[in-house]
Amino acid sequence: MMAVLSAAEATPRLQQEYRDGRLIPFLGAGFSKPLKLPDWSELMGWIAQRLDFEPELFYLHGRYEQLAEYFQLAGHDHFQQLVHEMTRRFDSEEAVNARRVSGMHQALASLDWRTLYTTNYDSHVEGALQDAGRKVAVLSSFEDFQTRREPGTTDVIKFHGTLAKPDTIVLTESSYYHRIALESPVDQRLRADLLSHSFLFVGYSFNDLNIRYIWYRMHQLRLQGQAGARRPSTRRCFIATFGPGPIQPDLLEQWNIDLIQLDPADKEASVADLLQRIR
Questions:
Q1: pLDDT, tens only, 153-193
Q2: Which of 92, 211, 219, 265 has the fewest CB atoms within 10 Å distance of its CB?
């Protein structure tokens, strides 16, 4: 049944999933908006200047991941330069200070999560948890999953890699194509979590083809996992949005995703309020 829920309507369902230890946040770039990190447009402008392109013209020649791949092909150390620039901007002192007063990050860190997923490269999700005194394990590579973790540690799974390990970053077109096979260690963990958890997506746009593919594949993996089961799973996922419109609810219903309509007047406060309601 198609559902667009208010925050109040979604609260009891999210609370029950959280109490059962079955709710997992899946955070996108929008979650870092209060920190004023550079967006794709700014990063592509930085690349354009180094390739002697006018930024306005450079944007016309491909999607962001294609332009990032072109930059990588232009020189053996170009990708390392880009990662260094992203790290400098994303993990700046200003961004860290903004995180420490961000209502969204404080609300997230106030909850006792066992697992979080994020497609963000920066370190602010795990940083917010550490600011709150929580033990964190950042997982992005095979070696990370092999490392012993203390009881009570929150697993922060970096679905598109982390700047701390440049070889894990999913940024160029080729890396995205490799990634969507969903066969890496983080994908194997996702397969396991899908069997018994609901996900709360925050910070994603309906126009993001990468996350839409993830939603599609998650649904397919769940169907495969319950093949032959006497009682197929009715577990659903949720996405926080500021305006679903008339079309998206029907499209996401086929993937068992309910939309939670938040107040667009103050997006940061709306997300913080939703997370605080879970408690």
A1: 999 999 999 999 999 999 999 998 887 777 889 988 988 89
A2: 265
* AA identity, residue 241: T
Q: Which of 140, 124, 143 is nearest to 132 (CA)?
A: 124
**What sign does the CA torsion over 222, 226, 232, 235 have?**
negative
Please state, in angstroms and rounded to a whole number, the distance separating the CA atoms of residues 147 and 135: 14
Residues 6+ apart with CB under 8 A from 63: 173
Q: What is the pLDDT of residues 186-206, one digit of tens each?
A: 988 988 898 889 999 999 999
The Cα-based distances of 16 to 19, 179, 227 in angstroms read 5, 33, 26
- The mean predicted confidence, pLDDT, of the chain is 92
The sheet that has 23-27: what strands, in order across it? 4-6, 257-261, 237-241, 198-202, 23-27, 115-118, 154-158, 136-139
Q: Please state, in angstroms and as integers, the Cα–Cα distance from residue 39 to each residue in 25, 30, 86, 211, 228, following that order.
A: 22, 10, 10, 17, 44
H or E stretch covering 43: helix 40-50
Alpha carbon distances (Å) from 53 to 5, 45, 47: 46, 9, 9
Which residues partner with 137 through β-bridges?
Answer: 155
The helix/strand/coil state of 261 is strand
Verdict on whether the full-model pTM lies above 0.85: yes
Strand partners, 178: none
Q: What is the DSSP string of 89-135?
A: HHT-HHHHHHHHT-HHHHHHHTS--SEEEE---SSHHHHHHHHTT--
pLDDT per position as a tens digit, 12-56:
999 999 999 999 999 999 999 999 999 889 999 999 999 999 999
